[in-house]
Amino acid sequence: MNHSLAAIFDGTPGAIEVRDLPLPELHGAEMLVRVLGCTLCGSDLHSFDGRRSVPIPTILGHEIVGEIVAFGETASRRDFAQRELTVGDRITWAIVASCGDCFYCQRDLPQKCLRSVKYGHEIVRPGQELLGGLAEHCLLVHGTAVVRLPSDLPLSVACPANCATATIVAALEAAGPLENRNVCIFGAGMLGLTACAMARCQGAAIVVCVEPDAARRQRALKFGATHVSDCVDLAAMTRQAGLQHGFDAVLELSGHPSAFDAAWPLIRTGGTLVLVGSVFPAAPVPLSFEQIVRRQLTIRGIHNYAPRHLLTAVEFLSRHHHDYPFAELVTQWVPLTSIADAFQLAKDPGAIRIGVHSPNVR
Predict the structure, then answer these.
(1) Cβ neighbours of 338 (radius 10 Å)
(2) N or C: which end of the chain has fewer CB within 10 A?
(3) Residue 336, domain extent
(4) How confident is the model at residue 362 (pLDDT cuts 50, 70, 90)?
(5) Cα-Cα-Cα-Cα dihedral sign, residues 276, 277, 279, 285
(6) What is the pLDDT of residues 136-168, one digit of tens each?
(7) DSSP state of 156
Protein backbone atom coordinates (compact mmCIF):
# COMPACT_ATOMS: atom_id res chain seq x y z
CA MET A 1 0.00 0.00 0.00
CA ASN A 2 1.43 3.38 -1.01
CA HIS A 3 -1.39 5.63 0.14
CA SER A 4 -3.27 6.57 3.29
CA LEU A 5 -6.80 7.76 3.95
CA ALA A 6 -6.90 11.18 5.59
CA ALA A 7 -9.60 13.66 6.61
CA ILE A 8 -8.78 17.03 5.02
CA PHE A 9 -10.10 20.26 6.56
CA ASP A 10 -9.96 23.18 4.09
CA GLY A 11 -11.14 25.89 6.48
CA THR A 12 -14.84 25.72 5.59
CA PRO A 13 -16.62 25.54 8.96
CA GLY A 14 -18.36 22.22 9.44
CA ALA A 15 -16.95 20.62 6.27
CA ILE A 16 -14.34 17.87 6.01
CA GLU A 17 -13.39 15.43 3.24
CA VAL A 18 -11.80 11.98 3.44
CA ARG A 19 -9.43 11.23 0.57
CA ASP A 20 -6.29 9.32 -0.33
CA LEU A 21 -2.87 10.87 0.23
CA PRO A 22 0.50 9.37 -0.71
CA LEU A 23 2.57 7.69 1.96
CA PRO A 24 5.81 9.63 2.50
CA GLU A 25 9.27 8.46 1.61
CA LEU A 26 11.15 8.49 4.91
CA HIS A 27 14.25 10.68 5.23
CA GLY A 28 16.83 10.82 8.01
CA ALA A 29 15.31 10.69 11.49
CA GLU A 30 11.69 10.41 10.35
CA MET A 31 9.37 7.61 11.39
CA LEU A 32 6.09 6.32 9.98
CA VAL A 33 3.31 5.12 12.26
CA ARG A 34 -0.07 3.56 11.65
CA VAL A 35 -2.70 5.50 13.57
CA LEU A 36 -4.56 3.23 15.98
CA GLY A 37 -6.79 5.92 17.41
CA CYS A 38 -7.21 9.68 17.70
CA THR A 39 -9.57 11.44 20.10
CA LEU A 40 -11.14 14.78 19.24
CA CYS A 41 -9.88 17.56 21.48
CA GLY A 42 -11.76 20.80 22.17
CA SER A 43 -9.32 22.70 19.95
CA ASP A 44 -10.18 20.35 17.06
CA LEU A 45 -13.86 21.24 17.52
CA HIS A 46 -13.09 24.97 17.63
CA SER A 47 -11.06 24.71 14.40
CA PHE A 48 -13.73 22.60 12.69
CA ASP A 49 -16.45 25.10 13.63
CA GLY A 50 -14.41 28.11 12.47
CA ARG A 51 -13.83 29.55 15.96
CA ARG A 52 -10.09 28.96 15.84
CA SER A 53 -7.63 29.75 13.09
CA VAL A 54 -5.53 26.89 11.72
CA PRO A 55 -3.28 26.57 8.63
CA ILE A 56 -5.23 25.08 5.72
CA PRO A 57 -5.60 22.63 4.15
CA THR A 58 -4.74 20.51 7.16
CA ILE A 59 -5.27 17.18 8.89
CA LEU A 60 -6.69 17.87 12.33
CA GLY A 61 -6.22 15.61 15.35
CA HIS A 62 -3.33 15.46 17.79
CA GLU A 63 -4.43 13.12 20.61
CA ILE A 64 -2.92 10.15 18.82
CA VAL A 65 -1.73 6.64 19.53
CA GLY A 66 0.14 4.88 16.75
CA GLU A 67 2.01 1.71 15.89
CA ILE A 68 5.49 1.99 14.43
CA VAL A 69 5.59 0.93 10.77
CA ALA A 70 9.05 2.02 9.65
CA PHE A 71 12.14 4.00 10.70
CA GLY A 72 14.15 6.44 8.63
CA GLU A 73 17.87 5.70 8.24
CA THR A 74 18.94 7.81 11.23
CA ALA A 75 15.77 7.61 13.32
CA SER A 76 16.36 6.86 16.98
CA ARG A 77 15.53 3.35 18.16
CA ARG A 78 15.02 4.71 21.69
CA ASP A 79 12.07 6.57 23.18
CA PHE A 80 12.31 9.63 25.43
CA ALA A 81 12.92 7.35 28.43
CA GLN A 82 15.68 5.51 26.52
CA ARG A 83 13.61 2.35 26.10
CA GLU A 84 14.11 0.33 22.92
CA LEU A 85 11.73 0.95 20.03
CA THR A 86 10.89 -1.65 17.38
CA VAL A 87 8.43 -1.97 14.51
CA GLY A 88 5.01 -2.81 15.93
CA ASP A 89 5.44 -0.90 19.22
CA ARG A 90 2.52 1.23 20.38
CA ILE A 91 3.62 4.81 20.97
CA THR A 92 2.45 8.31 21.62
CA TRP A 93 4.47 11.47 20.98
CA ALA A 94 4.69 15.13 21.96
CA ILE A 95 2.28 17.42 20.17
CA VAL A 96 5.19 19.70 19.17
CA ALA A 97 8.39 18.49 17.50
CA SER A 98 11.24 20.83 18.40
CA CYS A 99 14.73 21.55 17.08
CA GLY A 100 16.49 21.65 20.46
CA ASP A 101 18.73 24.57 19.44
CA CYS A 102 16.64 27.72 18.95
CA PHE A 103 16.04 30.61 21.37
CA TYR A 104 13.04 28.98 23.07
CA CYS A 105 14.37 25.42 23.09
CA GLN A 106 17.41 26.72 24.95
CA ARG A 107 15.08 28.30 27.53
CA ASP A 108 13.09 25.13 28.35
CA LEU A 109 10.20 26.07 26.09
CA PRO A 110 10.43 23.44 23.33
CA GLN A 111 6.67 23.76 22.76
CA LYS A 112 7.42 27.27 21.44
CA CYS A 113 10.28 26.16 19.19
CA LEU A 114 10.91 28.61 16.36
CA ARG A 115 11.19 25.68 13.92
CA SER A 116 8.42 23.60 15.43
CA VAL A 117 6.12 21.10 13.77
CA LYS A 118 2.80 20.85 15.62
CA TYR A 119 0.83 17.70 14.92
CA GLY A 120 -2.75 18.33 13.87
CA HIS A 121 -1.96 21.97 13.11
CA GLU A 122 0.22 21.85 9.98
CA ILE A 123 -0.60 22.68 6.38
CA VAL A 124 -0.66 19.72 3.98
CA ARG A 125 2.41 19.99 1.76
CA PRO A 126 4.28 17.61 -0.55
CA GLY A 127 6.29 15.01 1.34
CA GLN A 128 4.78 16.02 4.69
CA GLU A 129 1.08 15.55 4.09
CA LEU A 130 0.42 13.21 7.01
CA LEU A 131 1.04 15.30 10.12
CA GLY A 132 -2.31 14.87 11.87
CA GLY A 133 -4.18 12.13 13.67
CA LEU A 134 -7.30 12.00 11.50
CA ALA A 135 -5.61 9.71 9.00
CA GLU A 136 -4.55 6.10 8.64
CA HIS A 137 -0.88 7.04 9.03
CA CYS A 138 1.17 9.81 10.58
CA LEU A 139 4.69 10.96 9.74
CA LEU A 140 6.90 11.70 12.75
CA VAL A 141 9.54 14.27 11.91
CA HIS A 142 12.97 14.91 13.39
CA GLY A 143 12.77 16.31 16.92
CA THR A 144 9.63 14.39 17.94
CA ALA A 145 9.73 13.08 21.51
CA VAL A 146 8.30 9.55 21.43
CA VAL A 147 7.04 7.58 24.45
CA ARG A 148 6.48 3.83 24.21
CA LEU A 149 3.18 2.80 25.78
CA PRO A 150 2.63 -0.06 28.23
CA SER A 151 0.87 -2.98 26.55
CA ASP A 152 -1.96 -2.96 29.09
CA LEU A 153 -2.86 0.74 28.76
CA PRO A 154 -6.24 0.93 26.95
CA LEU A 155 -6.46 2.99 23.79
CA SER A 156 -9.23 5.16 25.27
CA VAL A 157 -6.98 6.05 28.17
CA ALA A 158 -3.79 6.53 26.15
CA CYS A 159 -5.03 8.78 23.33
CA PRO A 160 -5.53 11.98 25.40
CA ALA A 161 -2.14 11.56 27.09
CA ASN A 162 -0.25 13.71 24.59
CA CYS A 163 -2.63 16.65 24.98
CA ALA A 164 -4.88 16.84 28.04
CA THR A 165 -2.86 14.70 30.45
CA ALA A 166 0.54 16.14 29.59
CA THR A 167 -0.82 19.70 29.69
CA ILE A 168 -2.15 19.12 33.20
CA VAL A 169 1.22 17.74 34.28
CA ALA A 170 2.74 21.05 33.14
CA ALA A 171 -0.03 23.06 34.84
CA LEU A 172 0.41 21.31 38.19
CA GLU A 173 4.17 21.72 37.97
CA ALA A 174 3.52 25.46 37.64
CA ALA A 175 1.11 25.36 40.59
CA GLY A 176 3.84 24.05 42.91
CA PRO A 177 3.83 21.27 45.53
CA LEU A 178 0.27 20.15 46.39
CA GLU A 179 0.85 17.89 49.40
CA ASN A 180 -1.78 18.89 52.01
CA ARG A 181 -2.69 21.95 49.90
CA ASN A 182 -6.09 23.21 48.74
CA VAL A 183 -6.81 23.43 45.03
CA CYS A 184 -9.69 24.91 43.01
CA ILE A 185 -10.23 23.74 39.43
CA PHE A 186 -12.49 25.56 37.00
CA GLY A 187 -13.94 23.22 34.38
CA ALA A 188 -14.82 19.52 34.41
CA GLY A 189 -13.98 18.53 30.87
CA MET A 190 -11.04 16.28 30.08
CA LEU A 191 -8.55 18.82 31.46
CA GLY A 192 -10.48 19.43 34.66
CA LEU A 193 -11.20 15.78 35.41
CA THR A 194 -7.56 14.91 34.83
CA ALA A 195 -6.50 17.78 37.09
CA CYS A 196 -8.80 16.56 39.89
CA ALA A 197 -7.35 13.06 39.77
CA MET A 198 -3.76 14.19 39.47
CA ALA A 199 -4.04 16.76 42.26
CA ARG A 200 -5.44 14.12 44.62
CA CYS A 201 -2.68 11.70 43.64
CA GLN A 202 -0.16 14.42 44.50
CA GLY A 203 -1.62 14.68 47.99
CA ALA A 204 -3.95 17.68 47.76
CA ALA A 205 -6.19 17.86 50.84
CA ILE A 206 -9.15 19.66 49.27
CA VAL A 207 -9.95 19.72 45.55
CA VAL A 208 -12.90 21.89 44.56
CA CYS A 209 -14.16 21.56 40.98
CA VAL A 210 -16.28 24.42 39.63
CA GLU A 211 -18.52 23.44 36.71
CA PRO A 212 -21.95 24.75 35.61
CA ASP A 213 -23.10 21.39 34.17
CA ALA A 214 -24.61 19.16 36.87
CA ALA A 215 -23.67 15.86 35.21
CA ARG A 216 -20.06 16.95 34.84
CA ARG A 217 -19.96 18.05 38.47
CA GLN A 218 -21.03 14.57 39.54
CA ARG A 219 -18.40 13.02 37.31
CA ALA A 220 -15.72 15.22 38.92
CA LEU A 221 -16.46 13.53 42.25
CA LYS A 222 -15.52 10.20 40.66
CA PHE A 223 -12.19 11.73 39.60
CA GLY A 224 -11.11 12.84 43.05
CA ALA A 225 -12.84 16.17 43.64
CA THR A 226 -13.72 16.53 47.32
CA HIS A 227 -16.24 19.32 46.65
CA VAL A 228 -18.06 20.61 43.56
CA SER A 229 -19.79 23.90 42.85
CA ASP A 230 -21.76 25.55 40.06
CA CYS A 231 -19.96 28.85 40.84
CA VAL A 232 -23.17 30.50 42.10
CA ASP A 233 -22.65 29.05 45.58
CA LEU A 234 -18.85 28.98 45.37
CA ALA A 235 -18.18 31.53 48.12
CA ALA A 236 -20.54 29.77 50.56
CA MET A 237 -19.13 26.35 49.68
CA THR A 238 -15.58 27.66 50.20
CA ARG A 239 -16.47 28.83 53.69
CA GLN A 240 -18.22 25.52 54.39
CA ALA A 241 -15.06 23.66 53.41
CA GLY A 242 -13.17 25.65 56.04
CA LEU A 243 -10.92 27.51 53.62
CA GLN A 244 -10.47 30.62 55.72
CA HIS A 245 -7.47 31.87 53.76
CA GLY A 246 -8.44 30.78 50.25
CA PHE A 247 -6.85 28.31 47.84
CA ASP A 248 -3.16 27.59 47.52
CA ALA A 249 -3.62 27.05 43.78
CA VAL A 250 -6.40 27.79 41.31
CA LEU A 251 -6.43 26.25 37.83
CA GLU A 252 -8.61 27.93 35.20
CA LEU A 253 -9.25 25.34 32.48
CA SER A 254 -12.50 26.48 30.89
CA GLY A 255 -11.26 29.57 29.05
CA HIS A 256 -14.32 31.64 29.97
CA PRO A 257 -13.64 35.21 31.16
CA SER A 258 -16.33 34.84 33.84
CA ALA A 259 -14.38 31.91 35.29
CA PHE A 260 -11.28 34.10 35.56
CA ASP A 261 -13.31 36.80 37.31
CA ALA A 262 -14.47 34.20 39.84
CA ALA A 263 -11.09 32.49 40.16
CA TRP A 264 -8.49 35.04 41.05
CA PRO A 265 -10.18 36.52 44.19
CA LEU A 266 -10.17 33.01 45.70
CA ILE A 267 -6.39 32.64 45.80
CA ARG A 268 -4.75 32.93 49.19
CA THR A 269 -1.98 35.43 49.82
CA GLY A 270 1.12 33.96 48.21
CA GLY A 271 -0.93 31.55 46.09
CA THR A 272 -0.80 30.75 42.39
CA LEU A 273 -3.27 31.08 39.52
CA VAL A 274 -2.56 28.85 36.52
CA LEU A 275 -4.34 29.74 33.27
CA VAL A 276 -4.72 26.94 30.71
CA GLY A 277 -8.13 27.14 29.02
CA SER A 278 -7.85 30.49 27.26
CA VAL A 279 -6.63 29.28 23.86
CA PHE A 280 -9.24 31.10 21.77
CA PRO A 281 -10.18 34.80 21.49
CA ALA A 282 -12.36 36.12 24.31
CA ALA A 283 -13.29 39.42 25.90
CA PRO A 284 -10.60 41.05 28.09
CA VAL A 285 -11.01 40.96 31.87
CA PRO A 286 -10.25 43.60 34.52
CA LEU A 287 -7.32 42.88 36.82
CA SER A 288 -6.17 44.81 39.90
CA PHE A 289 -2.40 45.25 39.93
CA GLU A 290 -2.67 46.45 43.52
CA GLN A 291 -4.27 43.16 44.58
CA ILE A 292 -1.61 41.13 42.81
CA VAL A 293 1.11 43.06 44.59
CA ARG A 294 -0.41 43.13 48.07
CA ARG A 295 -1.44 39.47 47.98
CA GLN A 296 1.87 38.42 46.40
CA LEU A 297 0.08 36.38 43.76
CA THR A 298 1.71 34.37 40.99
CA ILE A 299 -0.13 34.13 37.66
CA ARG A 300 1.15 31.54 35.18
CA GLY A 301 0.03 30.75 31.65
CA ILE A 302 0.52 27.20 30.37
CA HIS A 303 0.23 26.34 26.67
CA ASN A 304 1.16 22.80 25.66
CA TYR A 305 4.11 21.18 27.45
CA ALA A 306 7.66 19.87 27.28
CA PRO A 307 8.51 16.19 26.52
CA ARG A 308 9.18 15.42 30.19
CA HIS A 309 5.54 16.24 30.92
CA LEU A 310 4.37 13.67 28.38
CA LEU A 311 6.50 10.96 29.96
CA THR A 312 5.06 11.82 33.38
CA ALA A 313 1.54 11.78 31.90
CA VAL A 314 1.95 8.25 30.55
CA GLU A 315 3.43 7.09 33.86
CA PHE A 316 0.50 8.66 35.75
CA LEU A 317 -2.09 6.96 33.54
CA SER A 318 -0.26 3.64 33.79
CA ARG A 319 -0.37 3.78 37.59
CA HIS A 320 -3.81 5.27 38.13
CA HIS A 321 -6.17 4.51 35.23
CA HIS A 322 -7.75 1.76 37.34
CA ASP A 323 -8.31 4.22 40.22
CA TYR A 324 -10.32 6.68 38.12
CA PRO A 325 -12.68 5.89 35.18
CA PHE A 326 -10.56 7.47 32.43
CA ALA A 327 -11.57 4.79 29.91
CA GLU A 328 -15.22 5.87 30.22
CA LEU A 329 -14.44 9.39 29.00
CA VAL A 330 -14.25 8.25 25.36
CA THR A 331 -17.96 7.61 24.92
CA GLN A 332 -17.86 6.33 21.34
CA TRP A 333 -15.45 5.26 18.58
CA VAL A 334 -16.19 6.19 14.98
CA PRO A 335 -14.35 5.04 11.81
CA LEU A 336 -12.32 7.63 9.93
CA THR A 337 -14.62 7.19 6.93
CA SER A 338 -17.46 8.65 9.08
CA ILE A 339 -15.44 11.58 10.40
CA ALA A 340 -18.31 14.08 9.97
CA ASP A 341 -20.40 11.94 12.34
CA ALA A 342 -17.58 12.01 14.89
CA PHE A 343 -17.53 15.80 14.94
CA GLN A 344 -21.30 15.89 15.28
CA LEU A 345 -21.21 13.47 18.22
CA ALA A 346 -18.47 15.52 19.87
CA LYS A 347 -20.78 18.55 20.11
CA ASP A 348 -22.80 16.77 22.80
CA PRO A 349 -21.80 18.31 26.18
CA GLY A 350 -22.07 14.84 27.70
CA ALA A 351 -19.33 13.52 25.41
CA ILE A 352 -15.96 14.32 26.99
CA ARG A 353 -14.16 12.65 24.09
CA ILE A 354 -15.13 10.95 20.81
CA GLY A 355 -12.55 8.60 19.32
CA VAL A 356 -11.73 8.08 15.64
CA HIS A 357 -10.08 4.91 14.35
CA SER A 358 -8.81 3.80 10.96
CA PRO A 359 -11.15 1.40 9.09
CA ASN A 360 -8.58 -1.40 9.30
CA VAL A 361 -8.00 -1.07 13.07
CA ARG A 362 -11.32 -1.93 14.69
Answers:
(1) 14
(2) N
(3) 3-154+321-357
(4) low
(5) negative
(6) 999 999 999 999 999 999 999 999 999 999 999
(7) H
For residue 63, the surrounding DSSP H or E stretch is strand 63-71
Q: Please count the structural domains in the chain.
A: 2
Nearest to 276 by CA among 160, 159, 178, 174: 174
Rounded to the nearest 10 degrees, how much is the dihedral formed by the CA atoms of 265, 268, 269, 274? -70
pLDDT tens profile 252-284: 998 888 888 888 888 999 999 999 988 777 788
Closest CA to 81 of 305, 306, 311: 311
Is 111 found in the same domain as 66?
yes
Condensed to tens digits (0 to 9), the pLDDT of residues 215-239 reads 999 999 999 999 999 876 777 777 7
Give this prediction's pTM. Answer: 0.95
Contact, 167 vs 175, CB < 8 A?
no
Neighbours of 322 (CB within 10 A): 11
Contact 130, 24 (CB under 8 A): yes
Angstrom distance (rounded) from CA 64 to CA 357 = 10
pLDDT of residue 130: 97
Per-residue confidence (pLDDT) for residue 124, from 0 to 100: 95
| Residue 286, in any domain of the structure | yes
Please check whether residue 277 lies inside any domain of the structure.
Answer: yes
Beta bridge partners of 35: 66
- State which amino acid sits at residue 358: S
Structural domain includes residue 362 = no
